[in-house]
Amino acid sequence: MRNAFFLLVAFQLFHFISVAQFPEEMDEPDILLQKEHFGGVFISSSGGGIEFRKGENKTFYTKWLYEFNLLEIKDARETRIYNPYYRNSRSYIYGKMNNLYVLRGGGGQQKLLNRKPYWGGVEIRYFWFAGGSLGFAKPVYLYIIKELKVNPNFYEYTLAVDKYDPEKHSLDNIYGRAPFTKGFDDLSFHPGVYMKGGFSFDIGRQNQKISAFELGAVFDYFPKGVQMMALRERESCFLSFFLGYYFGKRYN
User: Is 59 helix (H, G, I), strand (E, B) or coil?
Assistant: First the structure.
């Protein structure tokens, strides 16, 4: 809540600065490229993903955008380990119940803070987005060591792929993670909403081309909640910070 409060205050402050810096009577450049589309990748404090946006420039100072992104949300408590008793064991995240993938779709706005000089430089905007999301929780499957008693003095060990169950599986009998494809036939769906805001830094040397970095925060909310880790309650709220790079073009 404290991070969200400071982010809101910062947005209001920069909004005031932008209004003072660009009065309505100020002359605008001659050419306004009204349409743009671009995509990119981003990393965050809880994962990362890919993104696509399409927008319309209403004025030189305000643009409206629609976005779609696909990402993975990870739990901050995740720790990757190995079974030390078996050679060539595979790494896995102990206690993880589900992998959470999210498809977001929404709209928002960018506001100009600093116009790029005609010889080049950096254009700075602040932005906000909000919309709906759909989470896909994929259960974690692991290679489990099965012990088979052949005779009173001999045991045989085999590997079997099994859905992680904290009641049955422990550090002793987990060999490692199963193939990534395991679990897609057992998805659970979690509709939700999201909000995000931050700053965009366009470093492109040509107005027709977009080359920008973004820095911001995003809040995801899933009413049903998702159990990410064993022995934990379902989680509904996820706050993360992200850094992204985007490229595309503007046109009329």
Answer: coil
